[in-house]
Design brief:
Number of strands of chain B: 14
Largest sheet of chain A: 10 strands, mixed
CATH architecture of chain A: 3-Layer(aba) Sandwich
Order of helices and strands of chain A: HEHEEHEHEEEEEHEEEEHEH
Oligomer: heterodimer
Helix content of chain B: 25-40%
Strand order of the largest sheet of chain A: 4-3-2-1-5-10-11-12-13-14
Shape of chain B: globular
Order of helices and strands of chain B: HEHEHEEEHEHEEEEEHEEEHHH
Chain lengths: 239, 281
């Protein structure tokens, strides 16, 4: 993992920290593998010890001791408050409005927060067949707030999606490696850049004419506490 | 009732069948998948929420003509290269796909188990409804529009579990996915197990499937590998990472399948074959 020189932290770490900060104590969040899992576990180990982690495999209130590679690792079941079946997870818990925050990633995003994780090119004759939506279509409409985590490049931040896997109505924040976007009047707007990142860098990494807030700020760099908790988590994942 | 896996697959899985091998990350019935491959079953419609390595293998050796699924990746790793090769290039065969969301597929299995024609949910935002079998129905009481997904009624449902008793009753615990629904939605059901015990001791959160809803129970210790069996062995995360390389290349994939699946007789030989590769390396 590369570090960004002067800051002494990587862009992945900055993303995880910024997402974690947005999870209030007690938030019930639907977590996917990778950066969202890192962010939610970081929140749980720092400022939000009662953050409830829900993995779509049916584990509710999981408190993993190491970062899982899959959403169904045994550690999640061992540490969960409850383990439920997949039909129950989606019907009673997600559709039942029990989840506050859902994390989503994607291959493409548009200015309205609509996401594509299905296909690049034509659906019936794809250039690249991606894994598909999984839980995303219903997470996007079943949780109160959707948090998107995605690296900002012109290939990912596109004017037109090749396919709409999930709709952006409930996207409240997009955390990228360059900064933070939030919807303003229905359009994702750059509201912050990470330390050392120029607004123009975010503009040129966006495939549409990026709207920039008048009061664009610089995100707080990761604190010592955040970084050490994060690195301890990562070390355990790779042990 | 308790029969060798070879016989269960040969008696109950027929060419052209719709077959669901379920297990959501946990208890994936790999040994049964390998036996389907060994017996050269073909023209199957494979149903599974997360096709995973088990269907990557079956698709790559040409067992499938159609896939019904909701997330087709290698969990935590990336793409399923054999699935992609089939969808993008028709190798080794053209593969039709019917794609759903997880919530939709879970509802479709539950509807199948409930003997209902369709599952009902608030779902399918986005473009998928224009490419798959989903329709809108109106609630007769409130007028709300909801998504209807046709129920899943596989010819054969196959799952893996921790234990069976000598009569063929089955108990499984840990992450339970859609296994109960799969068995109860299917016309014929096969369960492979880690162990056959004298008596099933109730476990917290476990489900029990009585023998009379099953057609065959087969002993297959280690039969979930590289997936895992809670309280028996852990997920082989390294294998999932290694599969990315093995499956990327057609020849390497074929060589791997020949060595570890086609040239082995059963799950015990499969594990011995994998172990010999590690020792040799």
């Amino acid at each position: 993992m590369s570090t960004n020189g002067d800051g002494g932290f990587s862009s992945d770490e900055m993303m995880a920290v910024e997402a974690a900060r947005r999870l209030a104590n007690g938030t019930v969040c639907f977590v996917g593998i990778g950066l969202p899992s890192l962010a939610a576990n970081l929140a749980r180990l720092t400022h939000a010890p009662e953050c409830v982690l829900v993995y779509e495999s049916g584990t509710i209130g999981a408190k993993p001791t190491r970062l899982p590679l899959s959403i169904g690792d045994g550690d999640l079941a061992d540490t969960a408050d409850a383990v439920v079946s997949v039909p129950e997870m989606f019907a009673y818990w997600l559709q039942g409005n029990r989840i506050d925050v859902g994390f989503l990633g994607a291959a493409q995003i548009d200015r309205h927060g609509n996401l594509n994780s299905t296909v690049i090119g034509d659906y019936d004759h794809p250039k690249v067949r991606l894994p598909g939506g999984g839980g995303a279509p219903e997470i996007a409409t079943g949780v109160r707030d959707v948090f998107v985590m995605l690296r900002q490049t012109p290939r990912a931040f596109v004017e037109h999606l090749d396919f709409t896997t999930s709709v952006g109505d409930r996207v409240r924040v997009v955390v990228t490696d360059l900064g933070i976007l939030e919807p303003r009047d229905g359009e994702l707007t750059l509201v912050a850049v990470h330390p050392g990142v120029e607004v123009d860098a975010a503009r040129s990494a966006t495939g549409w004419e990026l709207r920039v807030a008048d009061d664009v700020r610089v995100t707080e760099p990761p604190s010592e506490i955040e970084l050490s908790a994060l690195r301890e988590l990562e070390a355990r994942a790779h042990a | 009732m308790i029969v060798p896996l070879h016989d269960a697959i040969s008696d109950l899985v027929r060419d052209g069948d719709t077959v669901a091998l379920e297990g959501f990350t946990h208890l994936i019935p790999h040994a049964a998948g390998h036996e389907i491959a060994r017996q050269g079953k073909h023209d199957l419609t494979l149903v599974r929420m997360t096709p995973d390595v088990v269907y990557d293998q079956l698709i790559g050796v040409g067992c499938a003509q159609k896939l019904v699924f909701s997330w087709g990746g290698n969990p935590g790793v990336g793409s399923l290269h054999r699935l992609r090769d089939a969808v993008e290039h028709g190798w080794p065969l053209q593969l039709a796909i019917e794609e759903h969301s997880h919530a939709g597929m879970a509802a479709a299995y539950a509807a199948g188990a409930s003997n209902l024609p369709f599952g009902l949910l608030r779902g399918y935002s986005g473009d998928l409804p224009t490419h798959t079998r989903v329709e809108t129905v109106t609630c007769p009481f409130t007028g709300e529009e909801l998504s209807a997904v046709p129920s899943l009624r596989p010819d054969v449902g196959i799952i893996h579990a921790q234990q069976a008793d000598r009569q063929g009753n089955v108990q499984l615990w840990g992450i339970l996915g859609v296994q109960k629904e799969t068995v109860l939605a299917a016309s014929r059901a096969i369960v492979t197990v880690e162990e056959i015990v004298d008596e099933l001791v109730p476990r917290p959160g476990a489900i029990v499937l009585p023998r009379w809803v099953l057609d065959a129970v087969s002993l297959a210790p280690g039969g979930a590998h590289p997936s895992y069996a809670h309280d028996y062995y852990e997920r082989d995360n390294d294998f999932y990472v290694a599969w990315d390389e093995i499956s990327r290349d057609r020849d390497r994939f074929r060589a791997w399948m020949k060595r570890h699946v086609f040239d082995t007789a059963d799950v015990t030989e499969y594990h011995a074959s994998l172990a010999s590769e590690v020792t040799a390396a």
